[in-house]
């Protein structure tokens, strides 16, 4: 099972104090593993923010959370056909997936070296995972995120070949569809037009936090369980 990190020395504000109209909940703290796991368990995730010219560590809980219901993934016929051309692997190239997601060539990139190191540490402790789409022995696309009990908090995805990231998402949903699937939460942070086309819906913050509280004690999906 995953290795528990040292507890965080930081205290995040209680959700009752969060601004109901602002996705940004807090600033500061750090990216240590204990801090990250505490934050995800509270419904938060980190991203760098620039305020008054100063880059800081921001903690977000979207007012409208992007969630993909496991029975709601929209898979077109063309995607089903594309999926046959890829092999899904789990955690065989985590660092490369994160590096591709954080490529400086991406216009909307936000994955700094500090984030890369932080999620690498989480991965080695057994909390962060990659789902990869391979073709002809090459990494064609993938995604990574944090898995705590019944929560999979998706962080980012990339593709080199057409449909590869979508196939990786299809692979992730297959991993999460087990006997506890009804209560698992696949969090994608925000609903974008692209993600909406795949079935991602919006959940009010309060509803998301309620679902989160009910899923954290579930067992990890079998594919994410680390051997002792």
SSE topology:
Blueprint: E1 24-27, H1 33-41, E2 45-51, E3 54-60, E4 64-67, H2 77-83, E5 87-90, H3 94-101, H4 113-125, E6 128-135, E7 138-148, E8 151-159, H5 164-176, E9 185-189, H6 193-197, E10 201-204, H7 205-215
Parallel strand pairs: 8-9
Antiparallel strand pairs: 1-3, 2-3, 4-9, 4-10, 5-6, 6-7, 7-8
Helix pairs in contact: 2-5, 3-4
Please summarize what this structure is.
This protein has helices at 33-41, 77-83, 94-101, 113-125, 164-176, 193-197, 205-215; strands at 24-27, 45-51, 54-60, 64-67, 87-90, 128-135, 138-148, 151-159, 185-189, 201-204. With 228 residues, it is of the alpha+beta class.
- Helicity, as a percent range: 25-40%
Whole-number mean pLDDT: 95
Strand pairing plus helix content: what structural class?
alpha+beta
Strand content: 25-35%
The end-to-end distance, rounded to whole angstroms, is: 6 Å
Widest sheet: strand ordering: 5-6-7-8-9-4-10
Main sheet attributes: strand count, strand direction, barrel closure: 7 strands, mixed
**Can you write the helix and strand succession as a string?**
EHEEEHEHHEEEHEHEH
Principal-axes geometry comes out as globular
Number of helices: 7
Explain the overall architecture.
With 228 residues, the protein is an alpha+beta fold. The chain has seven helices and ten strands. The protein has helices spanning 33-41, 77-83, 94-101, 113-125, 164-176, 193-197, 205-215, and strands spanning 24-27, 45-51, 54-60, 64-67, 87-90, 128-135, 138-148, 151-159, 185-189, 201-204. It has a seven-stranded mixed beta sheet with strand order 5-6-7-8-9-4-10, sandwiched between helices. Strands 1-3-2 form a three-stranded antiparallel beta sheet. A hairpin with a 2-residue loop joins strand 7 and strand 8 (151-159). Helix 3 packs antiparallel against helix 4. The chain is globular, with a radius of gyration of 17 Å. The termini are close together.
